[in-house]
Amino acid sequence: MEELTLTTPAVLFSAITLIMLAYTNRFLAYAAVVRSLHDKYLEKKDKQLIKQIENIKKRLYLTRAMQIYGISSLLLCVLTMFLIYVQQQTIAVWVFGAALVLLIVSLALLIKEIQISVKALEHHISDIENN
Questions:
Q1: Domain of 50?
Q2: pTM for this structure?
Q3: What is the pLDDT of residue 2?
């Protein structure tokens, strides 16, 4: 196996940073939707709004998990760089591997969240198509 260098985990910095920006934007969009649904529900106690709120709640929790795993991956990349710096190559390889696994989990959760989002949008589209 080739030796791990400082540049290897550093390459993930830009990718993880962009992913985290996308996750944060999703979270902010969901927060706006939650506030809107909350106001609508206070005006009109509609069961359909409860379903939408439950759906967005699932998506919020998934987004939070995505962010936690993504940030953890970034932290392990930094730890990897430190371990390389202090010449702990074997530990650095294992920590970097863990960082990659956490990033994979974060991206897998993104796929799940996108599937839930698409189902929610399909529900709205079917409402329009039925009218």
A1: 7-130
A2: 0.81
A3: 67
